[in-house]
């Protein structure tokens, strides 16, 4: 289902943002290294996504090739039917002329009355039996001609209809696959562009780290020089005070014993204690989980693990590699709740009970008219949203109240879980 992919980058970004190349405040090397590590983790996830996309492209290319082969084989069958048709039409025309001739002769000879005259003209019993058998065979041959004519005409019409319908279906499938392939290729281009952007960001962060390390080195050297200067200043002050005391002692010794003693002035010092309070902010989050026995909770939540971690592959149901088409995802989700449903959209479109749009609830199946009626299916989540495997995003949650899905929602809703 080819459609707008304006929001595709949000899926490829894997729910993360990019760091600005220029920091808005002074950061320490350890903080920048943490950003570098986070950036490299994002690169690894993008590379993993690119690998999945490339595998999906290869899988779809195989399906497209097989579809093209089936189209050629079907076209060959149609061509052969056309050749057979000419031969059959010629045969039917010859048979038609023969039937007309038989009818004309019957009319000239009095129709069934002529056959009766032939039988009654027998001269003995043996001749009567022989003539009766002959007339019976003639009548039976006439009837066989008419029946063969009708049977051949019906057979020809049936083969033509079946072949044309198969060819139309295969062409629709090829068109759909080409659209999906184009979308996936665009996803790959965006993922590669993101990878390049992440690499550029890593280079900027590494340069920032070098600059921060150099700034930290200069700060440490300046702090060491400042402390050295303070120490030298204190030493010089101590030496000055010592010399002053020694000078005073010398003067005291030259004075008489009656001299007044030298008053000493105690120095007062105050110590300030600084108390620091550490405040630790605790964030508490809780994630509600569906009850194990709640089938609706399972089918609406089990597939969320593949959001941003899957790709659309036609006809696929491979959770190990994250490969799903729309009906394959729905079938798998219900299977996790112990519920068996159809594998194709046509099977699912008759599953369970049909309900109105106003009555739909989480867990119901919702259908969309894309390349054909009920061409896409998903699981309704409530609030106008559904989850499904979309060709442009893989497994994702999308809105039915605006944009592409609103335009293609058929109003067809089925309830499997009562």
How would you portray this structure in words?
Strands 4-9-5-6-7-8 form a six-stranded antiparallel sheet. A three-stranded mixed sheet has the order 1-3-2. The protein has 418 residues and is an alpha+beta fold. Helix 2 (29-108) packs antiparallel against helix 4, helix 3 packs across helix 4 (125-254) and helix 5 runs antiparallel to helix 6. It is 60% helix and 9% strand. It is built from eight helices and nine strands. Strand 5 and strand 6 form a beta hairpin. The longest helix is centred in the middle third of the chain and has 130 residues, at 125-254.
List the helices and strands and how they pair.
Layout: H1 8-12, H2 29-108, H3 112-120, H4 125-254, H5 295-301, E1 311-312, E2 317-318, E3 323-324, H6 326-336, H7 345-348, E4 353-355, E5 365-368, E6 376-382, E7 385-390, E8 394-399, H8 403-408, E9 409-415
Parallel strand pairs: 1-3
Antiparallel strand pairs: 2-3, 4-9, 5-6, 5-9, 6-7, 7-8
Helix pairs in contact: 2-4, 3-4, 5-6
């Amino acid at each position: 289902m080819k459609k707008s992919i304006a929001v595709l980058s949000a899926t490829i970004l894997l729910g993360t943002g990019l760091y600005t190349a220029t920091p808005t405040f002074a950061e320490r090397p350890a903080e920048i290294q943490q950003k570098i590590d986070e950036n490299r983790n994002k690169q690894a996830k993008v590379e993993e996504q690119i690998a999945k996309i490339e595998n999906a492209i290869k899988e779809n290319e195989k399906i497209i090739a097989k579809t093209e082969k089936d189209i050629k084989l079907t076209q060959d069958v149609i061509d052969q039917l056309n050749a057979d048709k000419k031969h059959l039409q010629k045969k039917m025309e010859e048979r038609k002329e023969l039937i007309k001739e038989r009818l004309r002769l019957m009319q000239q000879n009095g129709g069934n009355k002529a056959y009766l005259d032939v039988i009654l003209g027998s001269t003995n019993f043996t001749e009567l039996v022989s003539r009766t058998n002959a007339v019976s065979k003639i009548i039976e041959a006439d009837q066989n001609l008419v029946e063969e004519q009708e049977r051949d005409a019906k057979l020809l019409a049936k083969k033509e209809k079946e072949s044309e319908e198969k060819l139309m279906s295969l062409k629709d499938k090829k068109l759909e696959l080409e659209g999906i392939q184009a979308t996936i290729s665009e996803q790959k281009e965006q993922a590669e562009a993101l990878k390049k952007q992440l690499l550029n960001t890593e280079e900027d962060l590494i340069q920032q780290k070098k600059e921060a390390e150099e700034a930290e080195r200069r700060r440490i050297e300046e702090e060491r020089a400042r402390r050295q200067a303070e120490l030298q200043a204190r030493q010089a002050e101590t030496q000055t005070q010592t010399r002053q005391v020694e000078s005073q002692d010398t003067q005291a010794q030259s004075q008489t014993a009656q001299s007044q003693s030298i008053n000493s002035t105690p120095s007062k010092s105050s110590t300030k204690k600084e108390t620091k309070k550490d405040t630790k902010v605790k964030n508490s989050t809780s994630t509600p989980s569906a009850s194990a026995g709640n089938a609706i909770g399972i089918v609406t939540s089990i597939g969320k693990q593949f959001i941003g971690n899957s790709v659309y592959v036609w006809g696929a149901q491979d959770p190990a590699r994250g490969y799903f088409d729309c009906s394959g995802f729905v079938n798998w989700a219900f299977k996790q709740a112990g519920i068996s449903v159809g594998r194709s959209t046509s099977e699912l479109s008759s599953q369970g009970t049909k309900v109105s749009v106003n009555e739909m609830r989480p867990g119901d199946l919702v259908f969309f008219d894309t390349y054909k009626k009920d061409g896409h299916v998903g699981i309704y989540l409530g609030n106008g949203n559904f989850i499904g495997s979309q060709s442009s995003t893989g497994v994702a949650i999308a809105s039915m109240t605006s944009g592409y899905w609103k335009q293609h929602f058929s109003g067809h809703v089925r309830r499997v879980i009562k």
